[in-house]
Write a sequence for this structure.
């Protein structure tokens, strides 16, 4: 799966799938992306991370390299930039059924807190 590189995730053809999977209604307001359901702010990078997560089955492990390449189109970025995006998405998803976990030494996976899932490498 590749990003459509729309430069504005809120108009991307994939946005409906992202909104459905994560129960969001995203809209760009005054240059910021906001979820109209919760009024939570999202960064462009965090929405791209959701896009990546939405195209694989729950439990798929994404390496840090794959996440960086997808979000930042292969541009070199610091480890802290990736950690900030993961933290923001975790915080914004808090309280829902889906959660991002760290799979030590492998990367990150989206899991369903309601039931156990098999975690598999992507």
């Amino acid at each position: 799966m590749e990003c459509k590189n729309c430069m504005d995730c809120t108009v991307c053809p994939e946005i409906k799938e992202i909104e459905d999977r994560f129960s969001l209604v995203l809209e760009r307001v005054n240059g910021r992306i906001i979820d109209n359901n919760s009024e939570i702010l999202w960064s462009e990078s965090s929405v791209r991370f959701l896009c990546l997560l939405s195209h694989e089955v729950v439990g798929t492990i994404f390496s840090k390299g794959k996440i960086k390449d997808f979000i930042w189109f292969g541009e070199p970025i610091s480890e802290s930039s990736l950690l900030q995006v993961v933290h923001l998405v975790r915080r914004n998803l808090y309280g829902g059924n889906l959660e991002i976990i760290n799979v030590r030494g492998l990367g990150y996976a989206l899991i369903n807190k309601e039931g156990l899932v098999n975690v598999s490498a992507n």
